[in-house]
Every structure is written in C-alpha cells, then in structure tokens.
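Thread amino acids onto this structure.
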C-alpha cells in the first residue's frame, strides 16, 4: 500500500557525523499537516563592556501538538566581533486568546579579542 506524502527537508546543524537532514511532512495521504515557525529577537547581557542584538526565525515544527523549536542566529557585530546563538526553545506556553509562544535562554559562543560570552533569554513572537 502506498500513501502519498509531501514535505520539505531542513538542513541539520552538522552535529551528526553522517550529515542528516530533518524531514517535515506537509501532507499525508492528501490531508494537510501544519507546520509553523516563530520569530525571536533580543539583546544579550552586558559583558566585557558591551552587548549585542540578535534576531532570527526558528526551524519549523508541527502545529496542534506539544513541540519545541530549534533556533540559530548570529548576534550583531559589536566591539569588533559577533557571537553565535543556538538552542532549543521550551515547550508551548498557551496564550489566553489562542496561539502560543516559547521561552528560550542560553549563552553565546566565546568570541572577541578579550574572549567572553553573553547570556540571553526571551520569548518567541
């Protein structure tokens, strides 16, 4: 028995030595399967005499079920360098009028002529 499926592939973060991709199915047997993304932005902690701004869009995740999103971006270029931000959001936090958001937090990569990192935290849109 064959079931028609369509979707798209999302590039991995290279953490798998076999180089994998994530498959997001958008239709299964002719029925739509919803996926969605969230935007996020913020300002890092003030460390080593400066902070950085960041913004990005999460990887897609399924709608209508409990889920998290992976995220990755670079900070703004300040004080002669930038940092990477990457992680996985928390689970769904419902909004009173419908919809949801996710919280995220972490630390940047270590960069700069005076090597340091910054903390960050926020909520997706």
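Threaded sequence (125 positions):
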């Amino acid at each position: 028995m064959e079931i028609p499926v369509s979707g798209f592939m999302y590039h991995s973060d290279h953490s798998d030595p076999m180089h994998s991709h994530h498959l997001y199915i958008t239709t299964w047997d002719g029925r739509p399967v919803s996926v969605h993304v969230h935007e996020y932005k913020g300002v890092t902690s003030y460390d080593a005499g400066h902070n950085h701004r960041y913004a990005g869009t999460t990887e897609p995740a399924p709608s209508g079920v409990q889920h998290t999103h992976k995220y990755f971006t670079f900070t703004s270029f300040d004080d002669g360098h930038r940092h990477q931000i990457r992680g996985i959001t928390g689970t769904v936090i419902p909004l009173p009028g419908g919809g949801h958001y996710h919280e995220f937090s972490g630390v940047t990569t270590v960069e700069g002529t005076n090597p340091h990192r910054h903390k960050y935290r926020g909520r997706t849109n």
